[in-house]
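Sorry to interrupt, but I need a hand with the structure work. Please put the record directly below this note.
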Amino acid sequence: MKRKSVTSREVAKLAGVSQSAVSRTFSPNAKVSERTRKKVMEASRELGYRPNTIARSLITRSSRTIAVVTYSLKNPFYSFMLEQASRFFQQQGYHLLLFSAPSDGGVDSVLDDIIKSQVEGVLMLAITMNEQQARLVVDFSIPVVIINRTVDYAGISQVGSDNFRGGFWAGQYLASQGHQRIAYLAGLPDSSTEQQRHAGFLKGLASMELELYSDDVGNYRYDDASQATRRLCSSSPKPDAIFAANDLMAIAAMEIIRDEFCMKVPDDVAIIGFDDVPMASWPSYSLTTLQQPVETMIMRATELLLKQIDYPETPTEHITLPVTPMLRHSTRRPTTSDNITTRV
């Protein structure tokens, strides 16, 4: 037999409070005394009451739903970002609707579903958009914030880190440690992060009067990076250093170099990554990398998105945050005589 729905009026009667007090108890950020809240929650548990958020959204014309779009949760960097975003939005009384973009990191295949879903805003984690796609979302008056990508369109807010400066530091640092055959493991070729890190890396090498020795594409993925590393290390002579455009590829490169080519890191090949995922600090990897300020990125992006939802006239922002070199054991340690900074 179908269970009878309990109404807020029944909860209010049992708790000895007004129906509006019940409503406020289950409304995010609404003011209600702790004594009233306790009475309402006890009555709700006793009766088995659950607030109907769908019905409430029809009344308030607010879905309290945020679309989060990402192309891969296999990369722990984006799993951590999603966790942080989810915690923040839930604290503000919002639900998350997760969309998975294709492996090329584009948004075209899910854009129509996002528009139809009646979400109040969209948070994109490392999703590539072109101007036409960005304009379409803006035309539907949906606030959007992109994290860790850039789009050449003023109507979309963007929060990211200084990828160019991070790449510059990696190139300069490896060259300063005496490496001559420095290779590069590229991410998704069409992504802004890849292009910025690559450009910065080449500039960093050039500042030390070096050119790139070799490169290959790992698409920001572990398996692709493993194959690319095999190709890089099949050359003669082999690279003596590799800068990977993210940590997942750097870890793949390290494992292939150690296990299949029986070389030592960093004695034979030094490795630098980008992101500083939790695994990077594990003793088995101890990966030198560029740390992105994940918590700050999420905080700035989520606060900006909610502000644009509440106040549609809020101007868009393009925020670039600094990265921090994390020196570990996958590279040679600098000496006091090295003309290189450990800061970006």
